[in-house]
């Protein structure tokens, strides 16, 4: 089983963060719990490849990033990796 610990909550363009000492404690406890489980049962299968679409606010940034190897422009403000 995959275990996660949420230490921040996004609200608009801001976040509410957990107190660092509490976050560290919760991360440590959850990590220990995860590592004690049968790791063979915790394996997940991943696809061979991933496709990522990035949307830029500024179309000139999207255009400039589209020249990197493996990038393609999809729309004015989007690139696909």
Helices and strands, with pairings:
Blueprint (H helix, E strand, L loop, with lengths): L7 E4 L2 E4 L2 H17 L16 E3 L3 H7 L6 E2 L4 E3 L1
Antiparallel strand pairs: 1-2, 3-5, 4-5
Describe this protein with a few key phrases.
2 domains; three-stranded antiparallel beta sheet; 81 residues; two-stranded antiparallel sheet; alpha+beta
Description:
With 81 residues, the protein is an alpha+beta fold. The protein folds into two domains: 1-45, no CATH class; 47-81, no CATH class. Helices cover 30% and strands 20% of the residues. It is built from two helices and five strands. β4 (72-73) and β5 (78-80) form a beta hairpin. It is flat, with a radius of gyration of 19 Å. The mean pLDDT is 85.
